[in-house]
Amino acid sequence: MGADFSYHSSVLDALTEIALDMRWSWNHAADDLWSQLDPELWELTRNPWTMLQTVSRERLKTLSADDSEPFSMALLALRGSGAVNGVSRLHGKVSRHLDDHWREMGFTAMQVESDAKQHHFRVDLHLDEMRPDAVQVELYAEPTDGGEPMRITLVREEQRGGENSWRYTATVPAERPAGDFTPRVIPHHPEAIVPLEAAQILWYR
Q1: Could you read off the pLDDT of 33-75 as tens digits, one per residue?
Q2: Which end of the chain has the least Cβ crowding within 10 Å, N or C?
Q3: pLDDT digit string (tens) for 116-142?
């Protein structure tokens, strides 16, 4: 009984390690692992931490009962491949850059021109020491009628005024009032996601 508890605890510990490392960024080699826990929930959330918090311990016990089962083999392969360590290093590097420079950024101007069909947004942003490729500037609008939020990525254009200050532009249909859209800045990395609890979201005020 003690050995059985220890084994399943080690499986949970391994999954927790992977989930925590991969809340921010992850190697997609882990997708199959999370899908085996609950395929429908994985398709819905694509969030390792949510998966781990939601799946029942009985489900974990069933999947990990046999070392030869695909779940256990995938878990062992991930832990031995170095993928988690690589993700941890990426997470640390991205996080340190954000923590060091995020609070020094700021919006400096916004202009909106509208016609019958479109709204044209121009937003100026001072990045301080932040790398331009480390952020994404968006227009965000709250969902309506139970739908999804609107997120429109602005395009970085010419450099403005001081060092590392840039203009971002976007054009959106005039189906909704221009006032529904708020510029914001979020962290960006090709292999990163922004967790829902991320503190690093800068809104235009």
Answers
A1: 778 888 888 888 777 777 777 878 788 777 766 554 566 655 6
A2: N
A3: 999 999 999 999 888 888 889 999 999
Residue 93 and residue 109 in one domain: no
Q: What is the mean pLDDT of residues 70-86?
A: 54
- Report yes or no: 139 and 107 within 8 Å, Cβ to Cβ: no
Q: Which residue segment(s) compose the domain that 178 sits in?
A: 105-203
Q: How far is CA 56 from CA 33, 44, 63, in A?
A: 15, 17, 11
Residues 95, 171: one domain? no
